[in-house]
Amino acid sequence: MAGALAVVALRADSGLAQSAIAAPQQPVAPAVGVRDSAGNATGRAIRLSARLAVDGRLDEEVYRSEESVSDFVQQAPVQGAPATERTEAWVLYDDVAIYVSAGCWDSAPKERWVANELRRDTNQLRQNRCEL
What is the tens place of the pLDDT at every residue in 37-71? Predict the structure, then answer.
C-alpha cells in the first residue's frame, strides 16, 4: 500500500508480532494562519464556490465570513517587530485561479501619502518621504 504506515505490535503473552497497515495521517490545515516558535508562518487557502471578481474591492461575502490572516511582522525598519499598521490578507482559490487579497490600512491621512516610485522591485520605494 503506497504511502501507508506499517504498524507492528508485539503481543506480550505470546511473543508473536502482529502487523497492521494504518492509513497515513492527513495534514490538517491551520484555522487561518499560525506561526511556529521559529517565526515561520503557515496559512490556509480558502476554496471558493464561485469565481472572485478582481475589481479592487473586498466586498464579496467571503471577506465577511472567513477570518483573515493578520499576524504580520515588519521587514523594515525593524525586522521581526510587530506590524505598526493594520493589514488583513486572504489566500483564496477556485478551479482556475489562486487569489491573494489584502486590506491595508494607514494611520496617516491621505494627504500625507506619497508614492514617487511605482515599480515593484525597486529600492527607491522605501525612500518615499512626506515632508511637512
Answer: 887 777 888 999 888 888 889 999 999 999 898 88
- Domain boundaries, position 100: 31-127
Q: E strands within the chain?
A: 5-10, 17-22, 33-35, 41-43, 45-47, 87-93, 98-104
Provide the whole-model pTM: 0.61
Domain count, the chain: 1
| Phi, psi dihedral angles at 79 (to 5 degrees) | -55, 130
In a domain, 22, yes or no: no
β-pairing, 45-47 vs 33-35, is: unpaired
Strand, helix or coil at 99?
strand
Residue 112 lies in a domain: yes
Residue 24: inside a domain: no
Q: What amino acid occupies position 120?
A: R
Backbone phi and psi for residue 52, each to the nearest 5 degrees, phi listed first: -95, 135
18 in any annotated domain: no
**Distances from the Cα of 69 to the Cα of 30, 46, 53, 85, angstroms:** 11, 11, 20, 14
Q: Which three cell numbers stand for residue 26?
A: 492527513
- Three-state SS for 120? coil
